[in-house]
Amino acid sequence: MDKAKLYIEANKERFINELFDLLRIPSISAEAARKPDMQRCAEWLAAALAEAGADRAEVMPTEGNPVVYAEKIVDPKAKTVLVYGHYDVMPVDPREEWRTEPFEPTIENGRIRGRGADDDKGQLWMQVKAFEAMCATGTLPCNVKFMLEGEEEIGSESLYGFCRQNKKLLKADIILVSDTSMLSMETPSITCGLRGLTYMEVEVTGPDKDLHSGLFGGAVANPANVLARLVAGLVDSEGRVTIPGFYDDVRSLTPSERRAFNKAPFDPAGYKRSLQIGAVEGEAGYTTLERTGIRPSLDVNGIWGGYTGEGTKTVIPSKATAKISMRLVPNQDYCKIAKLFEKHFRKMAPKSVRVDVKFLHGGMPYVAPTDMPAYKAAERAVTEAFGRKPLPFYSGGSIPIISGFESILGIKSLLLGFGLAEDAIHSPNESYGLEQFYKGLETIPLFYKYFAQ
Fold first, then answer.
1. 174-213 pLDDT, tens digit each
2. Assigned domain for 65 exists
3. What is the CATH number of the domain that holds 417?
4. pTM score, two decimals?
5. Could you tell me which residues come within 8 angstroms of residue 48 by beta carbon, excluding any fewer than 6 positions away?
6. What's the total number of domains in the chain?
7. Final residue of a domain: which of 363, 384, 416?
8. Is 307 helix (H, G, I), strand (E, B) or coil?
9. What is the dihedral of CA 8, 10, 12, 17, to 10 degrees?
10. Is 260 within the bounds of a domain?
11. What would the pLDDT profile of 104-133 be if each residue is shown by its tens digit?
């Protein structure tokens, strides 16, 4: 793999310039007006994969945004790696909190700044460029397929059907994913578990129109007030979700399992300082690591209603709305949780309002065994690149399609990500360290080497 490493070193500035071109495409899947940008981004990636060395690279249509598929078959008898990534990014709101233009990437203090810098354009670009380096130097030991989608940030709805329709095309020994994070550069880790997700939208309706808050205040239900009470009642003072049956399928870890889980390095003071908070909060009786890795949670992701513009407008809003997500742990079924949530929310609502509950998207939790060959290969690769053995780590995040891959394609996924907490994914001022990018480029060819063995 020395040849690939030398190639990467000689071309790393070009790799960054190309990544900047990718980051400039505003491929926001949640915004319908960005549909042309989604297509443009897919076509850009297909061309880049062909130039990198793929024998086949094309944009394949789905019911939603297209999938970029590419492959290089070096030997039909060799192992096959299916690389998954996503080219869609989150919206940039609140725009006023960005210090730089979201889609005009820059380098500041050794970090690439811009929407998608980490999640997931920066990380998928490592996979593309590592592939290029191995192709260019004749050191690619495995067959490689790429499947890059444009809907991960909105639930990957079209990708499930794409996988069902293309099982033969997507046949592989392992799915390689760089869309997760490490504990730190000093303590590298490999993600071996992801929480599942149930995402809901609730709407509370009172009067048939906005009302004068002086003439009607105190006489009719205010949907915003009611929604605030309902949302507040979903989690109790001990940080536990109040939905009946919510914890029925959650397995309690043994004391020894909890001790092992909490061996991961964690600096509470640094954690609070990095977020500018005075104290952490969550389910009583559990550490911060446990709360974000092995325990379920419920959070409001957005809430609105009534007048929110400049100045004042004294009204009782006709409607109030909230988006609510629940992160789930192994054995919890996202469909079951959605039904339990709807039943509970409707039961809590007073007769003075009407409620509408919608399930938006979700996915099952995922666990990657640490004894599978791909994990062992990744462990060797990270150890060699970072100079220390990586820790297995359960992430609090969710990639719903990962469990879908296992159920539809029958293939396990290896979550070999290089993000860090400070990358601020999904937030204003997202960034990705140059050191992370280059370490990822160094590690990926080593993974292929050891996986082929």
1. 999 999 999 999 999 999 999 999 999 999 999 999 999 9
2. yes
3. 3.40.630.10
4. 0.89
5. 18, 22, 128
6. 2
7. 363
8. coil
9. -130
10. no
11. 999 999 999 999 999 999 999 999 999 999
